[in-house]
Amino acid sequence: MTDSKYTRQTVTQVHTWVPGKLFSVRVTRDPAYAFQPGQFARVGLPADPTDPHAEPTVWRAYSMVSAPSEDWLEFYSIVVPGGEFSPRMAQLRPGDALYVDKTPFGFLTLDRFPTGDHLWLLATGTGLSAYLSMLDDPAVWQRFDRIVLAHGVRTADELAYRDEIAAWQAAAPGKLVYLPIATREPLPGMPQERLTTLIADGRLEELAGLPLDPAPARVMLCGNPDMLADARKLLGERGFAPGRRGIPGTLAAENYW
Fold first, then answer.
1. Is 119:176 a contact under the CB 8 Å cutoff?
2. Digits of tens for pLDDT over the chain (257 positions)?
């Protein structure tokens, strides 16, 4: 490559979850590309898709869905209407190029929590991505006694990767609690509410069967900025706090917007 900061990878698979709205792209992975579960990549597209030699000029950040042990990279995305990047990314097909910055980014990683018994993974929309990579890593299952994965969406068809989540539940019975929460339609056994409302009124704890207590619990937040701001405030009132100045934290968050 003329620019050593990135590599050219090849699309191998495109999966549509909701037509025109949600999709995943799988690409080859450079053998030298190493990352931790929860980190994100900068991926690029050329300004002129018809020129096979064009350099990438448009870049966006996407968390890895795939585990570090896989020989591919997978990204989960929403189509932003009128966007410069995601509509084009959704149109990629096997054999097309996607460029990946050689440096992974982000700190929503398990090393933020050197201790803890319960891991709460709270996501809205495509913020689910980072947690899929974590759950595909044996280290998370060894470190925590119980894991709660709560995924807030608008409608049931936006609940992606349910087969993978079900497989993890089957592999470790009773260890992973999956809470699919939709705000615009009822789901069996689940309230039709925002995640932050369920934190505030205590129903999220009831659904999980675990206390949201900073003594045993470690919480990760990944999603839209409004959810993060509200959840940080609610959890802060319960004693959760990010790590600072060498003091381990009980809360980690990352915008996914």
1. no
2. 454 799 999 999 999 999 999 999 999 999 999 999 999 999 999 887 777 678 899 999 999 999 999 999 999 999 999 999 999 999 999 999 999 999 999 999 999 898 899 999 999 999 999 999 999 999 999 999 999 999 999 999 999 999 999 999 999 999 999 999 999 999 999 999 999 999 999 999 999 999 999 999 999 999 999 999 999 999 999 999 998 877 889 999 987 65
Name the strand (E) or helix (H) holding 160.
none
- Kindly state whether residue 1 falls inside one of the protein's structural domains: no
Give the count of domains, the chain: 2
Looking at the structure, tell me whether residues 188 and 234 fall in a common domain. yes
16 and 139 within one domain: no
Of 99, 27, 95, 32, residue with least CA distance to 65: 27
Structural domain span for residue 233? 110-255
